[in-house]
Write a structure and sequence with these properties.
By secondary structure, this protein is of the alpha/beta class. The chain contains seven helices and 17 strands. A hairpin with a 5-residue loop joins strand 12 and strand 13. The protein is globular.
């Protein structure tokens, strides 16, 4: 049931601490793209011969009986601030890759769609899986910073309200089949951005927006903190001798956003109202399926190590292919094998 106005004090508490996302961790290992990354076909996706990462002993991920997104999803984007056409194309291509990849990419797996198969393993209480149909929905531009260049988590909801109630070209109101992304340009600051937060997801309050809509915010960190939120394509100032890696689409800020967007969509799908899939007993501070694998992009990842990634002939670093281009996306928690898994896992020769 949608939360009512009387629950606003509790919801404000939840909003300040729950479902905040993702800060990558320094260090990296790459392998040549000619190295055999395992193609994530159904027979090999969770093979015991692959090298996965993360502790299965102390993680107790549980289903708390809340709804998950099992219906086809349309991702509606609000571009807040100034965005160039190439930047928009990168993000559109990434979202379009969740359900599809081009025939040309079929021979160069791992793919984004294979990565999404892990998210699809999660179910609701009726046994229905997370949807495999994710498509781009409507888009709206807010080029003139209607709510300013310094936003709070609550004012982000007001930004979204303006987008769904606009008199011309509003974003559609679709609580059950819509997922909303508020993407802020590199000159916009949001509360706690560049600390431990590069994005977050939650749901809108009816008292502010009029509806309960699952949404996520992700910011472009290129100007404010690329070493925090666009790592490993930029490095933190406190690690002076570490060299940044070349980003796959020649845009450090947006290439960094891609993994955060993946993180948020995975968690929005499995925990849209913060009462479905998460670890821990406290919904105020849930540990969700992407949180468990922060900073892990390949086999060998964990702690401060990103794991084995791929390096293209142009020197760019990535770990999966989309419909037109390459991306670097963190792994997510796999409930079948109880490890972090991804489509670029390599063969563990110590296993039979």
């Amino acid at each position: 049931m949608p939360p009512g106005h009387g629950l606003l004090p509790l919801l404000l508490l939840l909003l300040t601490s729950a479902a905040v996302a993702w800060r990558p961790y320094p260090n990296s290992t790459t392998t040549s793209a000619t190295t055999s990354a395992v193609a994530a076909t159904p027979s090999t996706l969770f093979s015991p011969s692959l090298k996965y990462e993360g502790s299965s002993t102390f993680v107790h991920l549980r289903y708390h009986m809340g709804p998950v997104l099992t219906s086809p999803i349309s991702v509606h984007i609000l571009w807040y601030g100034l965005w160039s056409p190439p930047q928009k194309h990168i993000i559109r291509d990434f979202i379009s890759s969740f359900s599809h990849f081009s025939p040309a990419a079929a021979s160069v797996l791992p793919s984004v769609s294979s990565w999404w198969r892990t998210v699809r393993l999660y179910t609701d209480q009726t046994g229905h899986n997370i949807t495999g149909e994710i498509r781009l929905g409507k888009e709206r531009n807010d080029r003139f910073y209607s709510h300013g260049k310094s936003l709070t988590r609550l004012s982000l909801q007001s930004v979204l309200k303006s987008a769904v109630t606009a008199t011309t070209n509003p974003l559609p109101i679709a609580p059950k089949t819509g997922l909303y992304l508020v993407l802020t340009s590199s000159d916009v600051y949001v509360d706690n951005f560049c600390g431990q937060v590069c994005g977050f997801h939650y749901f809108t309050f009816p008292s502010i927006v009029g509806y309960t809509l699952p949404f996520a915010w992700v910011g472009n960190s290129a100007r404010l903190c690329p070493g925090v939120c666009a790592y490993p394509f930029a490095v933190p100032d406190y690690i002076p001798n570490l060299k940044p890696l070349k980003s796959p689409n020649s845009d450090i800020g947006v290439d960094g956003m891609v993994s955060v967007i993946g993180h948020e969509i995975a968690e929005l799908s499995t925990n849209p109202l913060v009462n479905a899939w998460y670890a821990g007993q406290d919904p105020v501070a849930p540990v969700e399926i992407a949180d468990l694998c922060e900073g892990i992009y390949g086999s060998g990842g964990g702690g401060s190590y990103t794991g084995m990634m791929l390096e293209g002939e142009d020197g760019a670093t990535y770990n999966m292919w989309g419909i037109r281009r390459r991306f670097l996306v963190q792994w997510v928690w796999n409930p079948v094998v109880n490890y972090c898994t991804g489509p670029n896992a390599v063969v563990d020769h110590s296993k039979p």
